[in-house]
Design a protein that fits this description.
Radius of gyration: 24 Å
Largest sheet: 7 strands, mixed
Number of strands: 21
CATH class of the largest domain: Mainly Beta
Number of domains: 4
Number of helices: 19
CATH superfamily of the largest domain: tricorn interacting facor f3 domain
CATH architecture of the largest domain: Sandwich
Shape: globular
Strand content: 15-25%
Structural class: alpha+beta
Strand order of the largest sheet: 5-4-8-2-1-11-13
């Protein structure tokens, strides 16, 4: 421990976790071969970062994060240069070792999507590199929120989103999932606010505004995360709880009451949860994703607080990432499916354990519709319908589609069907144990499947068509279709409504969010205005408090030019920034001249409230300049 961290506070619960789990964590070893990532300037085959110490100050007035990052390195090749990833960072000075000996550095040419390489002069025996820097107020990973953009409207807020390659916009690092590191951090924030990170967190506000963190386990840079705001903590069980603004905390704790049951179900399936605590933070509505699997602390959108726990499969998904993604990680972004496909499969298994097979079949049915839709949109032979992608010279965010999630899930579901659930579960349990805290590639997975599951069984290999699934387009012909009795009941009501049955006569008894999602997806693309009015008068969709339902309803409202819903649509686009919702709505609006004009008018007001992840997508749709 370096001198500057000698007073680091580590919560007693974290110390206990550290003692209990330390023996189960493999030593942080350098892999035999480290390939360079096309989305990183780093040379981890020469010098690899093993640990990070952060000392940062959060300045809301200047909208700036700044301080010092100390990188503990292993100089594998005895080279004299360390290559790091940066973007939008001001590097003030760089020093070596505990004595902070000054050294020289250069910032390379700006490269689209990637930022700038930071090249630091080191010595063959250098162990610590200290970088004094400031992040830009426009750092792509960081969103700064005014009090008016929060639920309580009393205090400012910030959160980071580092995936895929945005950690480099607030921390100089080897920003590639090939590299894993432990970290410690000391974060100074305004008094009265709470800071939390992807680490072991305090459950109470600090009197002096200084918070200290420890991540004991090696993680890739995209899992570095920070949130600061007027937060409160509420426990759900002895090992999980929720952080949120005080006005939201009670609702969130109720919504996530089954989290500990999900953890127990996950552990029964694929082994112990290795990260100590599992907590959730509900962020302001501008958060661009449903959830982000930051270790120990899932970042979640408030749009999943449906009031009936019908959207908590998202929590099961983020929890499952504690095995697939956080524990065994895609080595590069061409293989995102190794994170998301495995996690979607695991999510469904958790939900089946708790809510039953019929419920899970309904989730799978929706996923099947999603993946068929994206294949139809892109084209059955399109290269982006492969599981293993080629994202060279492209923003890796482009790989984040339903292909990675749902085609990946159906690939694993197909294997389970053909080898049997017991054999498949044994394989997956061994997979997570064998490759824990390591990076994985499609090629390595294929080899492991043949070694441990298929062996010399040529008939099984021919049945599974593994290479066709991973390296080929579309959905192979051995993809399993989903038969859901719940969704069949919805289909009957869709047929009745389109045949002329009035909305008030439909049988929607005990319908949940997923029933309505399927209902909307199976309606004709363009409804008559009288049909829209009928549905709205009976079910009050325009005024619904359920974000999934409102999103589906507004999609139909745009297609039908149902102007009665337009004020609510505008409010919806202005009040939250979840990309899953806003991107398709702007796309739909842009299909007509009048819709495009409306979209641009709304976006001009909404854009400053969206995270860069969302604006990066919508700018392209609206050709925004």
């Amino acid at each position: 421990m370096c001198a500057e961290n000698r007073h680091l506070y580590v919560a007693p619960t974290c110390r206990k976790i550290d003692r209990e789990l330390s023996e189960s964590i493999p030593a942080l070893k350098r892999p035999a071969q480290l390939e360079r990532d096309v989305h990183s300037f780093a040379h981890p085959d020469e010098v690899i970062v093993k640990h990070l110490n952060l000392h940062l100050h959060v300045d809301f007035a200047r909208r700036q994060i700044g301080g010092k990052a100390s990188l503990y390195i292993e100089n594998i090749s005895g080279v004299e240069e360390l290559y790091l990833d940066t973007s939008q960072l001001t590097i003030e000075r760089v020093t070596l070792g505990q004595q902070e000996e000054e050294t020289s550095f250069t910032l390379g040419q700006e490269v689209k999507f990637l930022g700038q390489p930071l090249v630091i002069k080191i010595k063959p025996k250098t162990k610590v590199v200290n970088i004094h820097y400031k992040a830009s107020k426009d750092a792509a990973a960081v969103q700064w929120l005014e009090p008016e953009q929060t639920v309580e409207r009393k205090a400012p807020f910030l959160f980071t989103q580092s995936e895929s390659i945005m950690a480099r916009t607030w921390i100089p690092c080897q920003d590639t999932p090939t590299v894993r590191m432990t970290y410690r951090a000391s974060i100074e924030v305004p008094q009265g606010l709470m800071a939390v990170m992807s680490a072991c967190n305090s459950q109470h506000k600090s009197a002096n505004g200084i918070y200290d963190f420890q991540m004991f386990y090696p993680i890739p840079s995209y899992l570095l995360a920070l949130a600061v705001g007027n937060l409160e903590f509420r426990p759900i069980s002895s090992r999980c709880g929720v952080y949120a603004e005080p006005a939201t905390i009670r609702k969130a704790a109720w919504e996530f009451a089954d989290t500990d049951k999900m953890m127990a179900a996950a552990e029964r399936l694929y082994g112990p949860y290795r990260w100590g605590r599992y907590d959730i933070i509900v962020l302001p509505p501008s958060f661009p994703f449903g959830g982000m699997e930051n270790p120990c602390l899932t970042f979640a959108t408030p749009t999943i607080l449906a009031g009936d726990r019908s959207c908590v499969s998202l929590i099961a998904h983020e929890l499952a990432h504690s095995w697939s993604g956080n524990l065994v990680t895609n080595a590069n972004w061409n293989d995102l499916w190794l994170n998301e496909g495995f996690t979607t499969y695991f999510e469904h298994r958790i939900m089946e354990e708790i809510y039953g097979a019929e419920y899970t079949d309904m989730l799978a049915g929706l996923g099947y519709m999603d993946v068929k839709a994206i294949v139809a949109k892109l084209g059955a032979q399109h290269k982006d319908t492969h599981l293993h992608l080629d994202l060279s010279e492209r923003d890796p965010d482009e790989g984040m589609s339903d292909i990675a999630y749902d085609k990946g899930h159906f690939f694993l579901r197909m294997i389970e069907k053909n080898v049997g659930r017991n054999a498949w579960d044994t394989f997956l349990r061994n997979y997570f144990d064998t490759f824990a805290f390591q990076s994985m590639t499609s090629e390595r997975l294929v080899s492991y499947l043949y070694e441990k599951l298929i062996g010399k069984n040529e008939q099984l290999a021919e049945t599974l068509q593994i290479e066709k699934w991973i390296y080929g387009p579309g959905l192979p012909d051995n993809c399993l279709e989903v038969n859901s009795t719940m969704l069949q009941q919805v289909e009957s009501q869709v047929k009745a409504f389109t045949a002329g049955t009035k909305a008030e006569e439909l049988d929607v008894t005990n319908w949940m969010t997923q029933h309505w999602m399927y209902f909307f997806r199976n309606l004709p693309p363009v409804l008559k205005k009288e049909q829209m009015s009928d549905l709205d008068n009976v079910f009050e969709f325009t005024a619904s408090g359920n974000y999934e339902i409102r999103f589906a309803w507004f999609t139909h409202a745009i297609a039908a030019k149902y102007e009665e819903a337009y004020p609510a649509l505008e409010k919806f686009l202005l009040s939250q920034g979840r990309r899953k919702f806003i991107k398709p709505l702007y796309e739909k609006l842009s299909e007509t001249p009048e819709g495009l004009a409306m979209a641009k008018r709304i976006y001009e007001k909404a854009r400053p409230t969206y995270h860069s992840v969302s604006t990066g997508s919508i700018d392209k749709i609206l050709q925004w300049k």
